Amino acid sequence: MLTFFTAPKPFTGHAAIIQRNALASWKRLSGCQLILCGDDVGVAEAAAEFGALHLPQVDRNQYGTPLLDSMFATARQHATQSLLCYVNCDIIFFNDLLQAVRRAQRQNFLLVGKRRNIDVNEPLDCRDPNWETSLRQRVVSQGKLAPNCCIDYMIFPKDSRLSCLPSFAVGRPAWDNWFIGNARRLNTPVIDATDVVMAVHQNHGYAHVSKNRGIAWEGPEADENRRLAGWHPKDGPLIVHTIDDATHSLTANGLRRTLSLVNLSRQMINKRQAQILRLRARFKNSKLSRLLGTMRGIRVRLRTAISLARRRGVLSGLSYLQKRVMRKIGRMTGNLPDSRQQPALADGN
Predict the structure, then answer these.
(1) pLDDT per residue over 272-327, tens digit each?
(2) pLDDT 10s digits, 221-259
(3) Cβ atoms within 10 A of the Cβ of 159, count?
């Protein structure tokens, strides 16, 4: 039914414990395939232990982090099931995931949901018939529902266009928000399964993030992910897509369209954002944009020359620059300016 694919961190210390817990929970789900990507320490051994397909050859960035475009393409090529599930290798699933997928499945869709955070420091015995009941009770009493901007699993058809994405670094910010936004741009129904799927996130540290700063996962890789996602370096995105942008919700009563005021307002913003992005792309490639860029450069150089001439008490040294500026303006507009207007420009007025 599902092909799970992930890129585990090295199987050392606490990471080894929680990743084995996650893999053991996925293996229990019937009719599912497991794919482990990468060649970090212990990945091959874990693949053999849990009967997963090991794909060591994936593209990496300069910091050694696997790239998602390579992972998605490789998983799609080797998947034996009709649905793909990208998931971080610290998420524990129960049988309610498969039940949700059966109820939500359609020709084209993206199923996501919020995770529930909890501290797990010990190996879990999934062979114990009471392990699921015990862990569920623990999550209800101790777990915390994560913010809607954190998307740790995504389920979609193998032949969907959603599997084509930029070279994002796995485990860094922005790409999961971009993924939901891309689904909306492709008119793919986005289904929020938070109410019916308990996805258990085992808390962990971020010592594996290269050159991290501030918040643990921030750093140059996060900056590059945001650039690939199209976030403006100063203003950021017009909107950060989250689970609140889902078009449908899956509840105990079935699948229904999301018609809350928050969702409707975000849909309007999404449409406006798409229009603005199209206008930006057109303007960026237009002759007017290139003309304005050239004029800005001319203005800066002209101001610098005038300031220098004024400090020296003379403006005669500006005549050569004047001629160059006027010629350049003439070439751009197709009309050479009258040379008799040049002295007025040299006065700085």
Answers:
(1) 666 666 666 666 666 666 666 677 677 677 777 667 766 665 555 455 556 566 56
(2) 988 998 898 876 555 555 788 998 899 999 999 999 887
(3) 12
Name the residue among 26, 63, 64 with its Cα closest to residue 47. Answer: 26
Neighbouring C-beta atoms of residue 245, cutoff 10 Å: 24
